[in-house]
Design goal:
This protein is an alpha+beta fold and about 70 residues long. A hairpin with a 2-residue loop joins strand 1 (about 40) and strand 2 (about 45-50). It is built from 3 helices and 2 strands. The chain has one domain. Strands 1-2 form a two-stranded antiparallel sheet.
């Protein structure tokens, strides 16, 4: 799927679920940044949880994956 299609789907999901909890599985960090809460699962367990801009993500798995994605 191209970036335009991904953006349209993500925008539609956000508009359909205001005030509701929606579980959305994402693999692009650009979209993960827009989420209100992010649980990070590792081998079936929650390894980290919070918002993308929280200091806890400064040295965690999310920060590591984001740094790797920027190196490309």
């Amino acid at each position: 799927m191209d970036a335009r299609g991904e953006h349209q789907i993500f925008t539609a999901l956000r508009e359909m679920a205001p005030g509701r909890i929606a579980l959305v599985v994402m693999h692009r960090l650009d979209h993960v940044r827009m989420a209100d809460r992010i649980p990070v699962l590792d081998r079936g367990r929650v390894r980290e949880e919070g918002a993308f801009d929280q200091p806890a993500y400064g040295d965690g798995l999310v920060a590591e994956l984001y740094a790797l994605s920027q190196d490309r």
